[in-house]
Amino acid sequence: MPVTPLVTTQWLRDNLERSDLVILDASFHLAATQRDPREEFRQVHIPGAQFFDIEYIADPTTDLPHMLPTDNDFIEKVSALGVGNDKTIVVYDACGIFSAPRAWWMLRIFGLENVHVLDGGLPKWQAEGHPVTDKITKPARGTLTGALDRSKVYDLDVVQEVVNGAPGLILDARGRGRFTAEDPEPREGMRSGHMPGAKSVPLCDLLIDGCYRPLHELKTIFTEAGVTPQTRAVCTCGSGVTAAGVALALTLTGHDDHAVYDGSWSEWGSRSDTPIATGAD
Asked: Which residues are in the Rhodanese domain (predicted)?
């Protein structure tokens, strides 16, 4: 059984027939791409995979995108995918590493321990000639218990405290152009820039060929951003998706004191009472 948050394509191929294995396709695409992840799943996915819909497994009572659901809602929707506390869960996405860490993070903070991300995702799996299918299977409902670990989720109030001088370092996973405000936000009406004091750590900089960079390279990137073993890290992005990719990278390096700001820039940038900085710093 893997002890790292990542599994390789070869490990998954070798263990594809395990009875305790649950595979989840957590693909998600920004609206500008005009891609439908559920339709793509219907056309091609890893055999036995279920579609983990980040937009559906979310809080329906807020206008903010794909915020965390309640405990009961999470258990109801996720157990229907065959997920249980006794299962080995592997999550992947259609981009390599993009949205799969969001599902990994959600599963972990709701109490599941044996959860892993497929490094390189579906692109690497297909490039290596491993099997795919369009056959959709219906799993038996999993036996799932758990509750949200709120220490791994930050809200607006906590992030405001960090901006105002409380201990913490904000790591922004968005592209550098969005961080500096040179590029517009993809969501209409959103202000551009970043939270004062934040450091730019784009998820794409943590990857190479759709996989996470080697451990020593990840450590160097975080060290250059100001992360130390004692740092309380706040992971943020546009809407809480790629922030989870930064959280996963921190976990790989052995850094434990970090959490995801679930509202991220969708919340911060849409308000008129939150401070914004522009430029590289």
From this structure: 17-134, 164-277
